[in-house]
Amino acid sequence: MNELSSKQSPAWAAGLLSAIVWGAGQGWNRQYLKGLLFLLIGAGAAAAELATGSYTRDSLADGFRFRENGGFFLKGIWGLITLGTQPRKMGLTGLTAGDHSIVLMANGIIALLFLLLLALFYIWNIRDAVTTRRQYCETGIRESSLQHFKRLWDTMYAYIVLSPTAVLTLFVSVLPIVFGVLIAFTDYSRNNSPPTKLVHWVGFDNFATVTQVFSWMHTFLGVLLWTFVWAILATVTTYLFGFFQAVLLNNSAVKFKKLWRSIYILPWAVPAMISALVFKSMFNGQFGPVSQFLLDIGLTSERIYWFTDPGNTNLARGMALLINLWLGFPYFMALIGGTLTTISESYYEAARMDGATSGQTFWNITFPIVYKATAPLLMLSFVSNFNNFGVIYFLTEGGPANPDYNFAGSTDLLITWLYKLTLDNRLYSMGAVMSIIVFLIVASFSLINLRKSKTFEEL
């Protein structure tokens, strides 16, 4: 032991000690407090497994079984792999004991995330022991635990402060995402729902269903095409109309500018859901005042079913775009109005001296400068409209009905179709597949356009 603890001992020996027993290498390096902290982390994980499992002599008499004996970590990983082996059954006294596949999956993901964190600490524990020993062998300087913690705080203060938020994000944001992705690879649906039935892993069968079954593929392509059309038109119309309003209000001939801005900003200030429900009532085909007014003045001979006429789906789509224009243009009006105030007046003076018309001034000075400043937000608006659940769902609920589609209407976007698949029809696995596809489309499109605009390029 004296030889191992000498200055010439290899650094890997300290790492080997920490690999066998958490913190042992730090103890050999005489960093006892640091070694104790690593030991407590490792011992705490082992204690959690023992406390939540069944490791008594009687329970292990017939051998170790993950389902009956495993604790938080071992049973969690077993449940994530198998999704259970014994479904619950309805008896005279209620449901019998058994496995709930979805609970097992959730617990398994949590256990896996904890194991990943423990793995990071374990690697840190080994690397720290090796690094400290190597430094001592090379310099002869032995850093105490308190000196190490002080140096760590000074050099990695930002990471230490951010780490609690990162861990919280791991379990609040990453966990649901992983859960949703994994559901896409199961047969979880209303016809195969726990606890009386077990969910099974089916691999890529659900993705094959979307691409190979005609009804699903037809629905997906139809909804996808309309989603792109909607996102493009909804973004372009709100941007251009907001641009137009901002230019008008920026004109020196307009009086009471604050009053006009206050009036035009009201549609944006009112919650979109409230406005959508109001418009839905106003344009109700059977009881709405708009249809009644047109009928009373003789412009129409019968009531117009703005959102529910299956023979005129473009009417519902056009109305949705108009109402979205009303709700969305104030945002760009305010945004572009602020940008217009930053354009130097010298540009316009030079243009007037060169004999440029107002149209030439707009297209060669105003529009390029404003577009360059607002292009990133224009892209974010496109992504937002691509997933604009509120306007479509609260306005049309995806209607009019389309008999050629699976669980979708003529104005459904991918996001509203996904909602119907999961909550209305409980086709959870297919809904998860759609959520993955939506994510891939939006992420790819956003990444390509943001790279082209060089908005987030590092300086």
UniProtKB/TrEMBL annotation:
<dbReference type="InterPro" id="IPR035906">
    <property type="entry name" value="MetI-like_sf"/>
</dbReference>
<feature type="domain" description="ABC transmembrane type-1">
    <location>
        <begin position="224"/>
        <end position="449"/>
    </location>
</feature>
<keyword id="KW-0472">Membrane</keyword>
<feature type="transmembrane region" description="Helical">
    <location>
        <begin position="157"/>
        <end position="185"/>
    </location>
</feature>
<dbReference type="Pfam" id="PF00528">
    <property type="entry name" value="BPD_transp_1"/>
</dbReference>
<feature type="transmembrane region" description="Helical">
    <location>
        <begin position="427"/>
        <end position="450"/>
    </location>
</feature>
<keyword id="KW-0813">Transport</keyword>
<feature type="transmembrane region" description="Helical">
    <location>
        <begin position="36"/>
        <end position="55"/>
    </location>
</feature>
<feature type="transmembrane region" description="Helical">
    <location>
        <begin position="223"/>
        <end position="247"/>
    </location>
</feature>
<keyword id="KW-1003">Cell membrane</keyword>
<feature type="transmembrane region" description="Helical">
    <location>
        <begin position="12"/>
        <end position="29"/>
    </location>
</feature>
<feature type="transmembrane region" description="Helical">
    <location>
        <begin position="259"/>
        <end position="279"/>
    </location>
</feature>
<dbReference type="InterPro" id="IPR000515">
    <property type="entry name" value="MetI-like"/>
</dbReference>
<keyword id="KW-0762">Sugar transport</keyword>
<feature type="transmembrane region" description="Helical">
    <location>
        <begin position="102"/>
        <end position="124"/>
    </location>
</feature>
<dbReference type="GO" id="GO:0015423">
    <property type="term" value="F:ABC-type maltose transporter activity"/>
</dbReference>
<comment type="similarity">
    <text>Belongs to the binding-protein-dependent transport system permease family. MalFG subfamily.</text>
</comment>
<keyword id="KW-0812">Transmembrane</keyword>
<dbReference type="GO" id="GO:1990060">
    <property type="term" value="C:maltose transport complex"/>
</dbReference>
<protein>
    <recommendedName>
        <fullName>Maltose/maltodextrin transport system permease protein</fullName>
    </recommendedName>
</protein>
<comment type="function">
    <text>Part of the ABC transporter complex MalEFGK involved in maltose/maltodextrin import. Probably responsible for the translocation of the substrate across the membrane.</text>
</comment>
<keyword id="KW-1133">Transmembrane helix</keyword>
<dbReference type="GO" id="GO:0042956">
    <property type="term" value="P:maltodextrin transmembrane transport"/>
</dbReference>
<feature type="transmembrane region" description="Helical">
    <location>
        <begin position="319"/>
        <end position="343"/>
    </location>
</feature>
